[in-house]
Amino acid sequence: MLTHLNVVNFATVDSLELEPGKGLTVITGETGAGKSVIIDALGLALGERADSAVVRPDAERAEVQATFDLRDNPAARAWLAERELDDGDDCLLRRTVRPDGRSRAFINGSAMPLQEVRALGDLLISIHSQHEHQALLRREAQRDLLDSYAGASEAASDVRRSWRHWQKARRAHEEALGQSREQHEREELLRFQLEELEALSLGEQELGELEAEQKRLGSADELIRLCQQSLALLYEHDEGTINDQLGQALGWLGDASHEDSSLATVLSTVESARLQVEAAADDLRHYLDRLDVDPERLAQVEERLSQVYTLARKHRVRPEELWQRHQQLREEAHTLAHYDDHLAALEQAEQQARSHYDAAARQLSDLRRSKGPELATGVISHLKALGMRGARLEIPLTPGEPGPDGNETVEFVFTANTGQPLRPLAKVASGGELSRISLAIQVICARALTVPSLVFDEVDVGVGGGVAEIVGRLLRELGSHAQVLCITHQPQVAALGHQHWHVHKQQTRKDTRTRIQSLAHDDRTSELARMLGGVEITDSTLAHAREMLENGQRASHDA
Questions:
Q1: Ramachandran angles phi, psi of 504, nearest 5°
Q2: Rounded to the nearest 5 degrees, what angle is found at the Cα of 23, between the Cα atoms of 20 and 26?
C-alpha cells in the first residue's frame, strides 16, 4: 500500500508530505482548493504523461516521490525481482519534470522508461476518476470491465496475440496462393535461365583461371623472348654469362682467402649466389619447355570468357558473381519445384494459428459467461442500495465474427424501472443513473482486483442524502480489506473515513499555495459542518456534523 507521498514544486504545491494509512482516507476541501492535485501528482509518479505546466514558476523542477509497502503485494515484489530492482519490503517511485517538459522516472533509484513504471504502477494502485462513467457508455469499456472482474485480462491478451498471429499466417497463405500463377511463370523463366547456365557449367574458381590463362597465352611470344634472353645471360651465352663471371670471382676469392681467412664469408656468399643462378636457369628451362604458342587454345579460352561475360550481362551481375548467381537460381528453382509443399506448410500454419485462437477465444468466452451474471447481480444489489430499486442490468454475450476481442460482443443492457424493457446502457441511462451504475461497478470490480490501494476521485458526484451515506459505506467496506483514498464533496462520505485530510489554498499577492492537513476529531466536525452548507455554521449544524461523525466512526469501528 501507499505509505508516503512527497510532492515538491508541483502545480500549486510547493512542498507536501502525506502518510496515508490503512482503511478509508477521505480528502475534502472547497471547490478549486487543489484536491485533484494530489491525484495528479500520484499519477505522475505512476508514469502518466508529464506536462511542463505542472512545474511551479521559477522552480528548477517538479518532483514527486511515492513509497509503497510491498509486504502484502507478491505480484509487485516478483515484478521487481525479475528486473533486479527489488529493495526489501519497500518500493520508491520518483519522477521529476523540468520547465522544458523533459522528465525522468526512477524505480528504487534506477532510471526506468515510463512504460515500465506504468506496468509496475498497475500492480501498486488503481485510480478511478469521476469521468469513468462516461467511458462506461462505450461497449469496449464495458467489455474491459467484465474481463477485469472475471480475471480474464490475461486471457483477453492471449486472444489478441492469437488473433494477430492467425491473421499474419492467413495473409501469408493468401499471398502465396495469389502468387501461384506468377510462380509458374517464374519457374518457366528460371528453367530457361538455368539451361544456359548449366550448359556453361562455370566452375567456382574457373573465371580467374581462364583470365590468367588468357593473359599468359596472349603474351606467349613476348614471354619466350624475355625468358630466353634471361637464360642466355644467366647461363647459356657464348661470350660469357653471369655464371661464368661468378666462377671467375670464386677463383680469385679462393686464392685471396688463403691469404686472409676473413674473406671466407664473402667466398661463401658468392658460392651461394652461383648455386642460385644455376637453380634459376633450370627453372627457366622447365618454364620454356612448358610454354608454347597455342593460338587454338587461346581462341578456346577467349570464346569461353566471351560466353561468361555475355551471361553475366544478361543476369546483370559482374562476371565474378555469375557462379554465385547460378547457385541462387538453382535454390530458387528448387523452392518453386516444391511450391506445393510450401503452400501446404503455409496452410497448416494458418490452421494451427486458427486452432490456437479458437481455444483462447473459447477460454475467454467461458470466463465472461461464468462471471457476467455474477457481476450483473452485484451491480443490481448495489443499485438497489443506492436508491434504484427497480433497476435491472444484464450482460449478454452476442455471438459474432471472430475478432481480436473474441467471438462475441459484450454490451450492458439496463432499465431503471420495473416493467421496462432492457436496452443498451448508452441509450437509457440518465447522467445521475449512470454515475450510480459506474460507482457500483467500480466498487465491485475493485474488490476483484489484487491491487492493494484504490483511489476514487469524486466518484460520488450526483448523489446526496441517504444515497451518499450508502456510497460512503460502500467505500468504507472496501477500506476494510484495501487502502482507499477518496476525494469527496459529500459529508456523509467524509464522516465514514478512517482518516480525513483537508485541502485548502493560501493566497498572497505573489502566489497561491495548496496546503493539506490531517484533521483531528474537532476539526473534522468543523469541516463536516462546512460541507453540510450555509454561509454561517450554526450550533445545530455543528451538532448535526458531530452526530454524523460519531455515527460514521461507530460504523467504521464496528466494521
A1: -150, 165
A2: 65
Higher-pLDDT residue of 134, 8: 8
Instruction: Round to whole Å and give the CA distance between 299 and 217.
Output: 10
Task: Record the cell numbers describing residue 526, joined without a space.
Answer: 468543523
| Torsion angle of C-alpha atoms 96, 100, 101, 105, degrees rounded to 10 | -30
Lowest mean pLDDT among 16-30, 76-90, 146-160, 213-227: 213-227
To which residue does cell 465491485 refer?
Answer: 444
The cell numbers describing 469, all together, are 451515506
User: CA 216, 220, 226 angle in degrees (round to 5)?
Assistant: 110
DSSP state of 262: G
What region does 9 belong to: left with phi over 0, alpha with psi -120 to 50, or beta?
left
User: What is the distance between the alpha carbons of residues 157 and 509, in angstroms, rounded to a whole number?
Assistant: 54
Cβ atoms of residues 56 and 11 within 8 Å: yes
423: nearest Cα among 432, 412, 431, 434: 412
What is the Cα–Cα distance from 312 to 197, expressed in whole angstroms? 10
The confidence score (pLDDT) of residue 352 equals 97
Residue 501 confidence (pLDDT): 92
Q: What are the tens digits of pLDDT across the range 427-467? A: 876 766 777 787 788 778 766 666 788 888 877 666 677 78
Asked if 146 and 371 count as a contact pair (C-beta separation under 8 A), the reply is: yes
Which residues on adjacent β-strands are paired with residue 55?
10
* Interaxial angle between packed helices 431-448 and 339-385, expressed in degrees from 0 to 180 and rounded to the nearest 10: 110
d(CA 230, CA 304): 33
| CA dist., res. 447 & res. 474, Å (int) | 11
Nearby residues of 322 by Cβ (< 8 Å), 6 or more positions away = 197, 202, 207, 308, 311, 312, 315
- Classify 101 in phi/psi space as left (phi over 0), alpha (psi -120 to 50) or beta: left
C-alpha cell at 303: 570464346
List the alpha helices (DSSP H) in 219-338.
220-231, 242-259, 264-290, 295-314, 322-337
pLDDT at 545 (0 to 100): 87
